[in-house]
TrEMBL record, chains A, B:
<feature type="binding site">
    <location>
        <position position="184"/>
    </location>
    <ligand>
        <name>substrate</name>
    </ligand>
</feature>
<comment type="subunit">
    <text>Heterotetramer of two alpha and two beta chains.</text>
</comment>
<dbReference type="Pfam" id="PF01960">
    <property type="entry name" value="ArgJ"/>
</dbReference>
<dbReference type="InterPro" id="IPR016117">
    <property type="entry name" value="ArgJ-like_dom_sf"/>
</dbReference>
<dbReference type="InterPro" id="IPR042195">
    <property type="entry name" value="ArgJ_beta_C"/>
</dbReference>
<dbReference type="GO" id="GO:0005737">
    <property type="term" value="C:cytoplasm"/>
</dbReference>
<keyword id="KW-0055">Arginine biosynthesis</keyword>
<keyword id="KW-0068">Autocatalytic cleavage</keyword>
<keyword id="KW-0511">Multifunctional enzyme</keyword>
<feature type="site" description="Involved in the stabilization of negative charge on the oxyanion by the formation of the oxyanion hole">
    <location>
        <position position="114"/>
    </location>
</feature>
<keyword id="KW-0808">Transferase</keyword>
<comment type="function">
    <text>Catalyzes two activities which are involved in the cyclic version of arginine biosynthesis: the synthesis of N-acetylglutamate from glutamate and acetyl-CoA as the acetyl donor, and of ornithine by transacetylation between N(2)-acetylornithine and glutamate.</text>
</comment>
<feature type="binding site">
    <location>
        <position position="397"/>
    </location>
    <ligand>
        <name>substrate</name>
    </ligand>
</feature>
<feature type="site" description="Involved in the stabilization of negative charge on the oxyanion by the formation of the oxyanion hole">
    <location>
        <position position="113"/>
    </location>
</feature>
<dbReference type="GO" id="GO:0006526">
    <property type="term" value="P:L-arginine biosynthetic process"/>
</dbReference>
<feature type="active site" description="Nucleophile">
    <location>
        <position position="184"/>
    </location>
</feature>
<dbReference type="GO" id="GO:0006592">
    <property type="term" value="P:ornithine biosynthetic process"/>
</dbReference>
Length: 397, 397
C-alpha cells in the first residue's frame, strides 16, 4: 500500500468540484463528488437521536437502493432542526442535483454542515448547482465542506490486488462536535475497486470502531454527520469478496484511509495546538482499551494540561479511573513520549528538561499500560485551548 | 425551615478552625471540624476507581465504626496516587489528629484536595496540627478547604421538629473535576439532630442523586472527593426514625442544604461567569429527565455558547439527542429564561433584545419540555470560559 499526493478524484471514474454559493460569507461552501457510473455505497451515521433532514434523505436512499453516483454537500447551514420545511428542502437538494446530472434522485447523496436551526437558502443552492461542473477542481471540494476547520483533510492510497491497481481516496471535515460513536463528522471516501455494497459496508463497519469512533474533540455529537464510501469498480479489478485475502487487504486499505482522516480531524480540532494520541496497552480486552484511551483523550483536565505543556499524569490516571471500565488500576504505568512518569502506580522521577522537550512537540503520545491483559486500543484528540472557547462562544455571531 | 447566616459550627456542639500550614504558598490550607461528642455519620464517595488514601482511611473508619467526632482537611496536596507512603501518611494524619484531640483514631475523618501525585509534607501537617484549636474560627475552615474556588461555600438552616429546634449547616469546596456520580467535591454537613448513622445514611443517599450528582463542571471525576454528614444529637431533640414525618422533614432539610451547596459549587466552577440551570420537564421518568438535564449542562458547546451569550438552542437540542436516553425528541420545546426558542421541535421567532437581556444575566435557566411523560429533573453547571483553560493549563506551575 502506498500513500501518494492525490485527492478525492484520484480513483478512476471520479471527479469533484467546489465553489462559493453564498451559504457562508466568503469561503467556498458548496461542492460535489461524481462518479461516471453508479457505485457501490456504504455509510455510517451519527448516533444522535436528533437527526438532520439531509442525513435522513441520504440514509434512506442508500438503504433502499444501495448504489450512489454523486454526493452533493454544502457547508454554512446544517439544515438541522428545521422541521418539515427542512425535509422538503433536503429532498429538493437531492432532486435538483439529480436533474442537473441527469441521473435518478436515489443516486444522489446529500450532506449539510454548519449552523443548526436555519433553513437552507434554496435560491443560493440553485444558483450554486448551476455553476458546479463535472471534472471540476477536486481540491475545491475539500475546501467547500469545511466549517471551523483550518486546513483541508485529504488522503490517497493505492495498492496492487494481484495485477490490478486499486486507488482509494478520502476527504473529511471535522473540528467541533467530534466525539464517540461514529459519524460525528463528514467524511467521503472514493475507490475504484470492484466490490458490492454489502461487502463494502462490512469493511466500513469493521473499521469504524478503531478509527473515527476513537476521536474526540469536545464530547459533543452532531445531528448531521456521516461517512460515505463509494466504490465504482472503474479500476477493472476482480470483485473483492468477503472472507478472502483480497478483502483483508481492502479492509487494511480502508483502515489506513480512515485512520489518517481521523488523526487529521483530531489534530485540527477547534482551537487545537497539539494532536494527542493515547495508547492503552495490556488491557483485558480491546473494547476496554479503546474506552480507556478515549476517556483519557476526552478529559478536559488532561486536554488543558497538554495545552499548558504540563506533564500532569495525575489527571491521566484519574481519567482512567472514572472511565467505568472493568480493569485493574493498581499497577498502571504511564509514559509521556518515551518517559515513564508512573510505574506500577507509583510516581517515577524524570528529567524536567527532557520532559519539557516532549511536552513542547506538536504531537504528544501518551501510553497507559494496565498490566491487566494483552489487548490494546488507541484514541486521538487534541488539547483544549483559549481558541476553542473563542471559536465556540462566537460561532453564530 | 429557615435559612440563616450561619456556618459549619452553628449546630450545637460543633466547632471548627482553619489556618495556613504551608501546603499552599499563602492561602489557608488546613482545618478541622470537631464535635463535643461522637456523632452519627454518613458518607458518599467518589466513583473513580482510582481512590486516594485519605478517602480509603475515612471510608473504612466510617464503615467499621459508624461514628465520628472530627474531620481534618488539608488543601494544596491531594495525597492521591502516592502509593504505600501515601497510605501511611493518611493513617498518620488520622492518628495525630486523634492524639491532639485525645479521642480514638477511628473517630477522625480525613480529607485532602489539591495536586495529585505529591506526598503530603508531614512536617507541615504536624506543625499545622499544633496550631489548630477547638472553638476556633469556623469561617476559616470554609476558606482552608478551597483549591481553585474563588469564594467560600456555606449554608445554614434551622427548623422546628415539634418543640425541638434542629440546626443544620454545610460547607463545600468544588471548582474543577466536578461531575457525575457523587462525591466529586468535598462537602461537610453538620447537624445537631438526634439520628442514627443508618438513618442518616438513608437520608444522605436518597438526596445525592438529585443534588450533588446533578452538577457538572468539566466531566472529570476526582479521586478524593466525598460528602460527610455528622449529626451529634446535641439539640436534645427526639430521635428521628425512618418512615416518620420527622424523617421526611429532616430529608427535606438535608436536600435544601445539599441543593444550595451544589448550586454554589456549580456557580463557582473554574472560570465560570454564569450559573446554568437546566430543567427537563415531562420526561418518561425522573432518571431520564436528570440524565438529559446533565447532558445539556455538560455539553462543551452549550457551555461556550452560554459564555458567548449566544442563544444557540441547536446545541441544546443536539445534547438532548446524543444523551442516549429513551425519550422522544420530535416534539421538544426549549425555553431560555421565559422565552420559547423551539416549540414542538420547530424553531420559534423571538425578540432579539429581550433575548439579549436574558443571556446577559448571571444565571441562565434552560427549560427542555419533552412532552413525553410527566417526570422532571434538574441539573446545574456553568459556562466554559477562557479562564477555565487558563486555570487548568497553569494549575501546577
Amino acid at each position: 500500500m502506498e500513500f501518494f499526493q492525490g485527492n478525492i478524484a484520484s480513483p478512476l471514474g471520479f471527479s469533484a468540484d467546489g465553489l462559493h454559493a453564498g451559504f457562508k460569507k466568503r469561503k467556498m461552501d458548496f461542492g460535489w463528488v461524481v462518479s461516471e457510473v453508479p457505485a457501490s455505497v456504504a455509510g455510517v451515521y451519527t448516533t444522535n437521536k436528533v437527526v438532520a433532514p439531509p442525513l435522513i434523505v441520504t440514509r434512506s436512499a442508500i438503504e433502499t437502493h444501495r448504489e450512489m453516483q454523486a454526493v452533493v454537500v454544502n457547508s454554512g447551514v446544517a439544515n438541522s432542526c428545521t422541521g418539515s420545511q427542512g425535509m422538503a428542502d433536503a429532498y429538493r437538494m437531492q432532486k435538483q442535483t439529480a436533474e442537473k446530472l441527469k441521473i435518478a434522485p436515489h443516486l444522489v447523496g446529500i450532506a449539510s454542515t454548519g449552523v443548526i436551526g436555519d433553513l437552507l437558502p434554496m435560491d443560493k443552492l440553485e444558483k450554486g448547482l448551476e455553476k458546479l461542473v463535472v471534472n471540476g477542481n477536486a481540491d475545491d471540494f475539500a475546501k467547500a465542506i469545511l466549517t471551523t476547520d483550518t486546513v483541508t483533510k485529504t488522503v490517497a492510497v493505492k495498492d496492487m490486488f494481484g495485477s490490478d491497481e486499486v486507488t482509494m481516496a478520502g476527504v473529511a471535515k471535522g473540528s467541533g462536535m467530534i466525539h464517540p460513536n461514529m459519524a460525528t463528522m463528514l467524511a467521503f471516501i472514493t475507490c475504484d475497486a470492484n466490490i458490492s455494497s454489502q461487502t463494502l459496508q462490512l469493511a466500513l463497519s469493521q473499521n469504524v470502531e478503531t478509527t473515527f469512533n476513537q476521536i474526540t474533540i469536545d464530547g459533543d455529537t452532531s445531528t448531521n454527520d456521516m461517512v460515505l464510501v463509494l466504490a465504482n469498480g472503474c479500476s477493472g479489478s476482480q470483485e473483492i469478496l468477503p472472507g478472502t485475502t483480497a478483502f483483508d487487504q481492502f479492509s487494511d486499505m480502508l483502515s489506513a484511509v480512515m485512520t489518517d482522516l481521523a488523526k487529521k480531524i483530531a489534530k485540527d480540532g477547534e482551537g487545537a495546538t497539539k494532536l494527542i494520541e493515547v495508547q492503552v496497552r495490556n488491557a483485558p480486552d480491546s473494547q476496554t482499551a479503546r474506552m480507556l484511551a478515549k476517556s483519557v483523550v476526552g478529559s478536559s483536565l488532561v486536554k488543558t494540561a497538554v495545552f499548558g505543556e504540563d506533564p500532569n499524569w495525575g489527571r491521566i490516571l484519574a481519567a482512567v479511573g472514572y472511565a467505568g471500565a472493568d480493569a485493574a488500576v493498581d499497577k498502571v504505568t504511564i509514559s509521556l513520549g518515551h518517559i515513564p512518569v508512573l510505574v506500577d502506580s507509583n510516581p517515577a522521577a524524570f528529567d524536567d528538561e527532557e520532559m519539557q522537550d516532549i511536552m513542547q512537540e506538536d504531537e504528544l503520545n501518551i501510553t497507559v499500560d494496565l498490566h491487566d491483559g494483552s489487548s490494546h486500543g488507541t484514541a486521538w484528540g487534541c488539547d483544549l485551548s483559549y481558541d476553542y472557547v473563542k471559536i465556540n462562544a462566537l460561532y453564530r455571531t
